[in-house]
Amino acid sequence: MDERGIMIADRDAEFRSQVAEHFRKAGYRVETTDSAVHVLCSILEKQTPVLLLGNDFDQKISSADLIHLLKKCNRHLHVILVSDEMPLAQARQVRQEGIFYHALKPADAADNEELGLAVQCAFDKKRAGYQAAPTDPRAKEAGYLSWLAPLSVLICGTSLVALATAASMEQGSSMAIWLFLAFCALLLVTQLLPVFRVKLPARMRQQGSVQKQQVKGEKDNP
């Protein structure tokens, strides 16, 4: 994915050239097009993070339908819709499809401040989303321990089968039946444990935090 990539999709060639020049000077990598097919292919292949889309960009497909397709290609895409005026019903449709911002079309080359701020906010939000998803150490610990239950069942089951074989040879088959039932009970317990796994750790963590606070209070007030 191009982290500083922008695509400008509009039928107005002068507008595309004007806005592209502005963002190139700002340090962005800019691609322009007047083809809906090109937009779809580029978003799907290059995963361009920000799209400046002109209203009524394609006469064969509405802006809302095009945004819907683009979101299917890349659900993290930030779409900034650029238009002069838009009917209220159409504005509601495009907002329901998940546009990032609705900007007014610049009147001239010196009127690009709103677009610049919108693009900057889109990239800031994307970076903040990446930084706000650190790896949870508790999830790592759970991943390490998740295989212990099946492994314990396997070891116990193997041991019980071995004991059952030896016992059946010495004392008859009744001992083997009891061991088999015990093995089934162990399997049932391991299947029921996840039901209580949600509440028990939270309660244990609360008790642990209370104990730590009590110990800390005793140290602070000897």
List keywords for this structure.
11% strand, Response regulator receiver protein, membrane, 5-stranded parallel sheet, Rossmann fold, Sig_transdc_resp-reg_receiver, alpha/beta, 222 residues, 2 domains, elongated
- Helix percent band: 55-70%
Q: Specify the structural class.
A: alpha/beta
Named CATH topology of the largest domain:
Rossmann fold
Strand order of the largest sheet: 2-1-3-4-5
- Give the CATH architecture of the largest domain: 3-Layer(aba) Sandwich
Domains, number: 2
CATH superfamily of the largest domain: Response regulator
Q: Largest sheet, described in full?
A: 5 strands, parallel
Based on Cα principal axes, name the global outline. elongated
Q: Tell me, rounded to a whole number, the average pLDDT.
A: 74
Strand % is: 5-15%
Number of separate strands: 5
Rounded to an integer in angstroms, the radius of gyration calculated over CA atoms is 31 Å
* CATH class value of the largest domain: Alpha Beta
Helix count, DSSP H or I runs of 4 or more residues:
9
Transmembrane segments: 147-169, 175-196
Domain Response regulatory: 5-120
Keywords: Membrane, Transmembrane, Transmembrane helix
Organism: Citrifermentans bremense
